[in-house]
Design a protein that fits this description.
mainly alpha; 0% strand; elongated
């Protein structure tokens, strides 16, 4: 159960990071910088968490490959 909760948490954080990049790309608005300050330590933690979750989600490709082989 803990693994499933981590999967959902990582996916949620990565989606929020993607939405932030979408806001930057389309509207030149950085939500993280607006909420926590552009160079604050809290912003750096948020960016770091998004990056770590993105790296973790790469493992989903392996899981998808295993599911396809089982079918």
């Amino acid at each position: 159960m803990a693994g499933k909760a981590w999967n959902y948490t990582a996916l949620t954080i990565a989606i929020l990071g993607a939405l932030n990049w979408g806001l930057i790309g389309f509207f030149n608005f950085n939500l993280v910088a607006w909420l926590f300050g552009s160079e604050s330590w809290l912003s750096r933690i948020v960016y770091g968490l998004v990056g770590l979750c993105g790296l973790y989600l790469i493992t989903f490709y392996g899981q998808l490959g295993q599911q396809e082989n089982q079918q």
